[in-house]
Write a structure and sequence with these properties.
The structure is a single chain. This protein has 334 residues and is of the alpha/beta class. The chain is built from 11 helices and 11 strands. A 5-stranded mixed β-barrel has the order 5-10-9-6-11. The longest helix is centred in the middle third of the chain and has 17 residues, at 146-162. The protein starts with 8 loop residues before the first strand and ends with a helix. Residues 1-22 form the signal peptide.
């Protein structure tokens, strides 16, 4: 059986699709911990395994629970059960905020990037009305450990020179897990990636965008297809907004993208980062507008997981014991 004290990396997921994608990229899956080595009060679900010599704990939030509060509530049990965790990662899907400066498309990856003294994640509070919004920086210990930030820089440099291997790694993973192709984890048809103009609003109904919003050019923002010299999916580094509600408003999305430099939106990272510092990686599954659907969620989860596996390959598997234990960060916070 596995010894919980051997594991040094925590990979957090909020949704089942994210958890499935994470499991797919393990080099090896390990047995469950021996009976009695984890507190009976710990009701979290875990998968244990290894990636590039690292022993990794995959954890998922309870079914039907997501958001800042839910993410924060599971952390204490995790770090009691796996007391030697040194690195925290929050990996999953998010809504993109494309602009002229940032050509973000479905399936792309956004990585939280420290800037101006913060760790790349802002916390927002969205009121009853979309514009009733307080936008504030997350607080405590907001930067990931140096070893993680160094690995991010090294991987970014490698990708600039050689390109990323996300597509190839996903294809290999799907070959090993062919069921997932039929479960929505393969790349959808490129023509289904449509960015509507901000004033084109989908009604509150179950009617599809194809049926109601249509595909006429006057409703869409024109974008050139990516060619062989472009990274596809592309990886973007910058600000991720994390808050209490899903953003479904293209006008608000564009406002925050222009004024704050937000690249994507999600709902769990602030709850984690208020407890301990972590890196946040998001695969883009929609455009944070009214035209939401689930067609790209599985593939976006795979692109985020594939990037994370490449990142862990940049972190030396030896020497993590010199990094501070995340459980200590919580004790200091409390």
């Amino acid at each position: 059986m596995s010894n919980p004290n051997d594991y040094t990396i925590l990979w957090m997921c909020a949704l089942t699709a994210e958890y499935v994608a994470a499991q797919t990229f393990l080099d090896e899956e390990h047995p469950k911990p021996a009976a009695g080595t984890i507190s009976i009060s710990d009701t979290n679900a875990y998968t244990l395994g290894s990636i590039s010599g690292h022993k990794v704990v995959l954890a998922v939030l309870p079914k039907g629970e997501y958001g800042v509060g839910s993410a924060a509530s599971v952390i204490t049990n995790i770090l009691r059960s796996f007391a030697n965790i040194r690195i925290g990662l929050m990996i999953g899907i998010g809504g993109g905020a494309p602009t002229k400066a940032n050509d973000i498309r479905l399936g792309d990856v956004v990585v939280s990037s420290p800037k101006d003294g913060h760790g790349g994640v802002y916390h927002y509070d969205l009121g009853k009305e979309s514009q009733d919004m307080g936008f504030k920086q997350t607080g405590f210990l907001d930067q990931p450990p140096t070893v993680v930030r160094t690995a991010v820089s090294a991987l970014e440099s490698k990708h600039i020179r050689k390109g990323n291997h996300i597509v190839e790694n996903i294809e290999d993973a799907l070959e090993r897990n062919p069921r997932l192709k039929r479960k929505g984890y393969a790349c959808p048809a490129p023509e289904s990636d449509r960015l509507y103009k901000a004033d084109v609003v989908h009604p509150i109904s179950e009617e599809s965008c194809d049926a109601f919003c249509g595909t006429k050019p006057n409703k869409l923002i024109a974008r050139q297809p990516r060619d062989d010299e472009d990274d596809n999916p592309a990886i973007h580094y910058g600000l991720i907004a994390s808050g209490n509600k899903v953003i479904k408003d293209a006008i608000l999305r564009d406002k925050l993208a222009q004024e704050q430099g937000v690249l994507c939106f999600e709902m769990e990272a602030a709850g984690i980062m208020n407890r301990f510092p972590c890196l946040v990686v998001r695969g883009i599954c929609d455009y944070s507008d009214s035209h939401k659907n689930k067609a790209w969620q599985g593939y976006a989860a795979m692109t985020a997981a594939a990037y994370t596996k490449e990142l862990l390959m940049e972190i030396p598997s030896e020497g993590l014991e010199h990094e501070g234990r995340l459980a200590v960060a919580i004790e200091r916070r409390e």
